[in-house]
């Protein structure tokens, strides 16, 4: 066992963690922002925008990967523009991993944040306004604490989803050891190379991380639901 | 100190059409549940936006649809006490008050503690709203509102969430607090008792329309309008036919009555309060022979419901009397107590 572990290149673990953390930071701010924005729309616009923002959750990740390639390929206008002007390249690079993980994890944050915000009693917001508080203060000091359990589960779910991302990642970022090979990509590579033990090792790590995450959500969100009785 | 208000707002199959002007002091807004009275306060506070109209507070225009003015709630300096108190649940009492004072100003802590002391909340600083009684929550909400230094205070059914015993004590307390603070107050309520106790002037709202405004005592004494009489607690109301300047026929009660005041052309109804009816022992002017329908005893008074003994289809009439008195055979409608209503 130790012999096996000593032969493993741990770069997929660190890559996955780095990718997951960075993608989660982006999803948190953009997801909560999008949730705020969508709530202000009228019913029809809300349904449409919500549909677009939720799509990555229901589509196969390969479809998201296809669109990402379409946008960021160096042979396409936007990808070429980024490369020529900002020296930014998504295809076959680590930023591509983050981008793919972000796109796939985004709906989880967005939907959790929106559900949490929609449960906030609107009279709290009115009270804040009549008390002369700024909208920013109302949001960060009143709404976010009230929505905290929902936001926390959004963060945990998007992180878990981000470190597990495979489909869109391989299409956009590829599978380069030490550069873009995350744990979930490594599992597929090792299995196809016949290295079942190494694949199993990564599986074990991912299962552990995901399990801990889910238990953590239950502990966090369960705190506010302690009064809910079973039936 | 004055509020001028003239607004129109349509919402969910309902039209609010309110217009009144007050001079300051305590103003009560009386209306049945669903009459749109809370909506008026919300428009003043800037939580809701009227479709059209104008709201000015002490000469400061808060809203004017023609001039395109709609000050945000934050800038209106209007304190609003919500029915549910709207204390921020994730904050302690201290933090609920502290958030209102901007920045880390010197003496912030002292201001909070002084306010807590005034509202008899000392010792509860570290509690969360869910750990307070209804009365304590209300005082925290009041204290928080006063720290925001409002120019005017709006109370939305402030006692509806409290039970009877607590209510009486709190009403007295709140009167004291608010008098001490010396700001104009508007209180919305469906309870005529609360309005009567609380306000020196009042506005009567019915089905979204402001019907009447004036001194509270005057309106209770002489409501003038049938709806206003009903809202101020007059249970006995009858349609009338005018027979002369001082004589009428109350068609719902099958009785001819003489009045003290001259009956104007616009008078369509009369009302008489149950406790002003006088028991009598023999027929005479303004006296009705009664047929008992039912009796209800409340802790301190007796409510007698009766019909006119003559005529089958007369409406029931309420008499409020002392519990020691016997139920009479005849009832007199004192001339001077008859409310002429249009």
Automatic annotation (TrEMBL), chain A:
One of its GO terms (cellular component) is plasma membrane. Residues 13-217 form the ABC transmembrane type-1 domain. The keyword NAD does not apply. The chain crosses the membrane at residues 20-39, 51-72, 92-110, 138-159, 199-220. GO terms for molecular function: molybdate ion transmembrane transporter activity. It is a multi-pass membrane protein. InterPro entries: MetI-like, MetI-like_sf, ModB_ABC. Belongs to the binding-protein-dependent transport system permease family. CysTW subfamily. This is Molybdenum transport system permease.
Automatic annotation (TrEMBL), chain B:
Signal peptide: none annotated. Residues 2-232 form the ABC transporter domain. GO terms for molecular function: ATP binding; ATP hydrolysis activity. It holds the Pfam family ABC_tran. Coiled coil: none annotated. Gene3D superfamilies: P-loop containing nucleotide triphosphate hydrolases. Keywords: ATP-binding, Nucleotide-binding. InterPro entries: AAA+_ATPase, ABC_transporter-like_ATP-bd, ABC_transporter-like_CS, Molybdenum_import_ModC, P-loop_NTPase. This is ABC transporter. It comes from Lacrimispora algidixylanolytica.
